[in-house]
Each structure stands twice: as structure tokens, then as C-alpha cells.
Amino acid sequence: MMIRIAGLDDFSAVEALLGRSYPAMMATAYEERVLARALPFMTKAKVELLTSGTFYIVEDEGHVVGCGGWTSGAPGSGESVEGLAHLRHFAVDPARARHGIGRSIFTQCARTASAEGAVRFQAFSGLNAEPFYARMGLVRLKVVSIPMGSDVAFPSVLMEGPVGGRP
Ligand SMILES: CC(C)(COP(=O)(O)OP(=O)(O)OC[C@H]1O[C@@H](n2cnc3c(N)ncnc32)[C@H](O)[C@@H]1OP(=O)(O)O)[C@@H](O)C(=O)NCCC(=O)NCCS
User: In the chain, what are the domains?
Assistant: First the structure.
């Protein structure tokens, strides 16, 4: 397995991974009708992330099995606060869950974000992913409802913690 910076050429593979990961892993925490409305928005690969230089892919024998990264701008608003970085679009192939892929992406993010001066991470976590981010040292700040399109609100958890992970 190897981790590398993603690029625009990875657009289709990342979108396919999001399409495999989110529906399967989120089904444990959300009602089917909520997922049916929200997933078409959430499983779109983002050019902004693929060209950021801080979005990573984990490959195993040429297959993309994980992705995730960070940005200094907040998702949506793009607002930057000194020392704060935002974890973005983490996804692992459901067939490869709980094998440390998410942790390896977090570690890579921590290394590169701290090298650029970040000391805190924030993440909008799905309800399903809260135990993962908690294990990475983030704590729940509040539950938020993220608008998806004109008529869907997706319950998520805003989490924050030290870039260095759990002490
Ligand atoms: C969240 C996600 C990226 C985690 O990836 P992963 O590779 O399965 O996570 P790891 O194996 O690195 O887990 C590291 C630790 O986090 C914790 N953890 C991870 N998933 C967990 C779960 N479902 N329940 C409880 N703890 C969990 C565990 O402590 C785990 O260590 P352990 O397996 O030794 O006990 C993955 O579950 C996923 O892709 N989810 C769907 C997409 C998603 O919700 N993304 C988040 C953005 S909203």
C-alpha cells in the first residue's frame, strides 16, 4: 500500500471510491430517505481538493482504497483562521475498513498540516465517522445540519482537536 498526493487524473477513481464508501458506511447511522437525498451531493469528487496538493490517495496494487486531505479554508465559506486546518472528504473502501487506512491518511494530514503551521484540525464528521475522528483526538463541538441542495439537511458533527492527534 502507498499514500500519495491526489491529482485531477484521480477524479473518476475518487468519485468511484466515494460512491462505494459513503452509502455503505453511512447506512449504519442515517435513514435511507436522508441518504437518498444527500448522497448525490456528497459523493461528488471536488476539483478544489484534487488540485489542493494536500489531498491524498491510498492505493493498493493500483486500486484506490482510501482518500482524504485537509485545506486551510473552511468547507463552504473558504474562511481561513490562523493555525486551523480542515479535514476533508475522508473515505475508505468498505471492504478495507478498520485496517488503518483512515489513520494513515490522518497521519499524513497531520504531518503536512503541522509543517504549514496548523495546530488544530476541524472536521464535519458524519454521525457514522465520529468514533474514528474521536480516536484521532477530535472532540464534538456541536451537531450541525448541513444543507444539501435546496431541500435536504444532513445532520453532521463539527469536531475539533490537536493536529498531533490524541495525546
Ligand atoms: C471514517 C473512515 C474514513 C475510517 O477509516 P478506516 O480506515 O476504517 O479507519 P481506521 O482503520 O484507520 O481506524 C482507526 C481507529 O478509529 C476507530 N474507528 C474507525 N472506525 C470506527 C467505527 N466504525 N467504529 C468505532 N471506531 C472506529 C478505531 O479506534 C480504529 O482503530 P482500531 O480499528 O484499531 O480499533 C471510514 O469509516 C469511512 O470511509 N467512512 C465512510 C465515509 C465517512 O463517513 N467519511 C467521513 C467524512 S463525513
Answer: 2-119 (3.40.630.30)
d(CA 167, CA 133): 14
Residue to substitute in 132, 133, 144 for testing ligand 1 pocket (most ligand atoms within 8 angstroms of CB): 132
113-148: b or e for each residue (b if 16 or more CB lie within 10 Å)? Answer: beeeebebbbbbbbeebbebbbebbbeeeeeeebeb
What whole-number percentage of the chain has pLDDT above 90?
A: 92
d(CA 31, CA 27): 7
Which ligand 1 atom is at minimum distance from the Cα of 124? Answer: 48
User: Does pLDDT of 122 surpass 90?
Assistant: yes
Question: Model-level pTM?
Answer: 0.97
- Judge contact between 10 and 63, C-beta under 8 A: no
User: Does residue 35 have a pLDDT over 90?
Assistant: yes
